[in-house]
TrEMBL record:
Residues 1-23 are annotated as: Disordered. Residues 171-243 form the CARDB domain. It comes from Anaerococcus vaginalis ATCC 51170. It holds the Pfam family CARDB. InterPro entries: CARDB, Ig-like_fold. The chain crosses the membrane at residues 295-314. This is CARDB domain-containing protein. The keyword Membrane applies. Residues 1-13 have a biased composition (Polar residues). Keywords: Membrane, Transmembrane, Transmembrane helix.
Length: 331
């Protein structure tokens, strides 16, 4: 990563005026960072990276002598998710630096940089493994002299983006015994075991030969060290082996999309419910059919008896009524 934008604060410190005061020059030399690179561009926690600094003496006449350059961490803007407020700044100045130089100190020296000249230095650094993802600032401090021995101090800042390693782990997929046409709960626990806060976390289930009540679940922000769970009810449609998979997708702090799949297999048995067929459809039991069949003649005979009895009473009543009418006529 190359960046020409740096913050610059300069304090031209002269030695105190005295009887032995040195002569001062009007055209004071000035040193800046003309550009810098971070390799790789996105620094990962726990790994090494290079800072390539290019220094430039902007003065057209006066050289810079006895240059000492030191690097110190300034502050950071930590990436947050979940209930934390996005963009909150956290200064790490009192917590110690997350960067350490590799096989050297944080200081280097140049005897001179002449007018309008450049000087490049590469510093290998390491990021502590437990460093949180964020944008970190590093101060680059200059101490140098002009040709008369006057001393100057300059501080500039560079930015170093740090990303953490994204990693998740899961429990075993918990599936009870499966029966045709019966709902069974399936569940799995998910853990963010990496050093990164994950976003757009989604869980899905896919497969054939079964229905589910909820085939996807959106978690969203998944903070470092947090745990979640994904569960659904599965209803197998036929007897035999059943296969499926749970798909987990998410983004890390670099914006990269990750995809992981967890497969599961299970044998589906015939339903223990006698009123369900092999396809999960309700059926009548054999005993019920036999009972209905055996009761049919009884019901038929009883119906005929009732009809005959009803006809008998109707005729008897009609005859009685007719006889009564005849008696009235004779009188």
């Amino acid at each position: 990563m190359e960046n020409n934008q740096v913050e610059n604060t300069t304090n031209f410190n002269k030695q105190d005026d005295s009887a032995n005061e040195q002569a001062q020059i009007r055209n004071k030399p000035k040193l800046i960072i003309s550009s810098y690179k971070i390799q790789p561009k996105m620094v990962e926690a726990g790994k090494d990276f290079d800072i390539i600094l290019t220094l430039y003496n902007t003065n057209a006449q006066n050289a810079i002598f006895n240059l000492k350059v030191s690097l110190d961490q300034a502050s950071s803007t930590e990436q947050v998710s979940g209930n934390n407020k996005a963009g909150s700044e956290t200064a790490y100045g009192n917590e110690g630096s997350v960067f350490t130089p590799v096989e050297r100190s944080n200081t280097f020296y140049r005897s001179a940089i002449y007018p309008w000249n450049y000087s490049t230095e590469t510093i290998k650094m390491n990021v502590l493994p437990n460093t949180k993802a964020g944008n970190y600032q590093m101060s680059v401090n200059f101490e140098y002299e002009d040709y008369l021995g006057n001393q100057y101090q300059t501080t500039e800042s560079i930015g170093i983006p740090v990303v953490a390693t994204a990693a998740i782990s899961t429990s075993d997929i918990n599936i009870d015994e499966l029966f045709v046409g019966e709902d069974t709960n399936v569940s799995m626990n998910i853990y963010n075991t990496g050093k990164d806060n994950l976003t757009n976390f989604m869980c899905k289930v896919e497969g054939e030969g079964f229905d589910v009540d909820e085939n996807s679940h959106f978690i969203g922000n998944f903070a470092q060290g947090a745990s979640e769970s994904f569960s659904f009810n599965m209803n197998p449609k036929k007897e035999g082996p059943l296969k499926g998979k749970i798909i987990l997708t998410y983004e890390d702090s670099k914006g990269e999309v990750h995809k992981e799949e967890k497969t599961f297999k299970k044998q589906v048995q015939m339903s223990q419910n006698e009123n369900v067929d092999e396809n999960g459809n309700p059926i009548e039991s054999t005993e019920q059919v036999e009972q209905d069949f055996n009761m049919a003649p009884v019901i038929g005979i009883g119906s005929i008896f009732l009809i005959v009895l009803l006809i008998y009473f109707i005729r008897k009543r009609s005859k009685k009524k007719k006889n009564k009418e005849l008696d009235l006529d004779e009188n």
